[in-house]
Design a protein that fits this description.
Length: about 350
């Protein structure tokens, strides 16, 4: 039996996608080989690679002048690559501190150059995102870095600030809602939350930005290397790209990002309604910044939380434990998380309250 898996990442994948991968695992389209046993320059893998890029461009309606890249090292490597490539000598980079992931990005940039933290609500409880009016922007900053969804705290940016060069870590909400890519200089995401298995990082970058990179940056750390070589300068992680390709097909069949946004809003709405419907549970993010991806809450009596998580697990509702840094309960309900799992969790919450409230 498949679990209702609320893991924050690596996270649940669409069951249809897993079954498809399973069906062609040993013999990809009559070749007698697995896709992961083939050359990354061969005809079969090339078709997957191109389709995956085309599907992402189509889903996000990516304009001309941007490239879709498959990199490695996770979103965490991007924290360093961004300032290495884009923060010039004598320039300042603006960062919003919205929580744990933003803080990690800021730390890496500070090691490489001058950083202005334009708003700091990283430690606010309830958790939230800063409003655009709060931002103390540097004029002429190399870029503004934001974290679109703080996976740990459950706060999500609903509107993006306007900036000449806006860079967003979208690791935990990419492809969950439509987006105007033309407003961004760069978007990046580790794949293992809302895209596919761990192993690749999706980068969408405006080509002209890559030219800023100083000559001292090593080949494999330059965006231009990936742009100029279609992410095939070295061996791309072929199997994760294949999985991502299957996920993008699945997304297209589900009505694209408009369809996803609607489903995600319905799923999150039900869960927030259950939290708000009683004093027994309390949401931990400010209402207007509540994430549709990572729903975080507490039980008024915190001592009951381990029991809640344990008993939920026995009912096939798995991995509801909040991040070790904040405690409480977290339900990560990415695109692939089925609506029936939300209903099952809501009934369990009612039962648990009836027993212990
Ligand atoms: C998980 C996560 C990261 C780190 O991703 P890795 O791929 O593990 O490096 C960075 N930012 C956000 C918002 C995340 O959720």
């Amino acid at each position: 039996m498949r679990a209702y898996n609320f893991s924050a990442g690596p996270a649940i994948l669409p069951e249809e996608v897993l079954k498809e991968a399973q069906a062609e695992l040993l013999d990809y389209q009559g070749t007698g080989m697995s896709i992961m046993e083939m050359s990354h320059r061969g005809k079969e893998y090339s078709a997957i690679h191109e389709e995956c890029i085309a599907n992402i461009k189509e889903l996000l309606n990516i304009p001309e002048g941007y490239s879709v890249l498959f990199m490695t090292g996770g979103a965490s490597s991007q924290f360093s690559l961004i300032p290495m490539n884009l923060l010039g000598e004598g320039q300042t980079a603006d960062y919003i501190n919205s929580g744990a992931w933003a803080i990690k990005a800021i730390k890496e940039a500070q090691a490489l150059g001058s950083v202005n933290v334009v708003a700091d609500c990283g430690k606010d409880i309830p958790t939230r995102m800063p409003a655009t009016e709060e931002l103390n922007l540097t004029s002429g900053a190399a870029y503004l870095h934001v974290t679109s969804n703080e996976t740990i705290s459950g706060a999500q940016l609903k509107e993006f600030p306007a900036h000449e060069t806006l860079i967003a870590d979208m690791s935990s909400d990419i492809l969950s809602r439509p987006l105007d890519v033309s407003k961004f200089g760069m978007i990046y995401a580790g794949a293992q939350k809302n895209l596919g298995p761990a192993g690749i990082t999706l980068v969408i970058i405006k080509d002209e930005l890559a030219a800023r990179c100083p000559a001292s940056v090593p080949t494999m750390m330059r965006y231009s290397t990936f742009i100029d070589n279609n992410s095939l300068y070295n061996t791309v992680p072929t199997f994760p790209v294949y999985m991502l390709c299957l996920v993008t097909r699945w997304l297209k069949a589900k009505g694209g990002l408009e369809g996803m946004q609607q489903l995600n809003a319905e799923k999150a709405g039900k869960l927030y309604a259950a939290i708000d419907g009683t004093d027994f549970y309390t949401g931990t993010a400010v209402e207007e910044y509540r994430s549709d991806m990572n729903i975080t809450w507490r039980i008024a009596n915190h001592d009951l939380e381990p029991l809640f998580i344990e008993e939920a697990g026995k009912q096939n509702l798995k991995t509801l434990k909040g991040h070790r840094s904040v405690g409480g309960i977290r339900a990560s309900i990415y695109n692939a998380f089925p609506a029936e799992g939300i209903d099952a969790l809501v009934s369990f919450m009612k039962e648990f309250e009836a027993k212990h409230g």
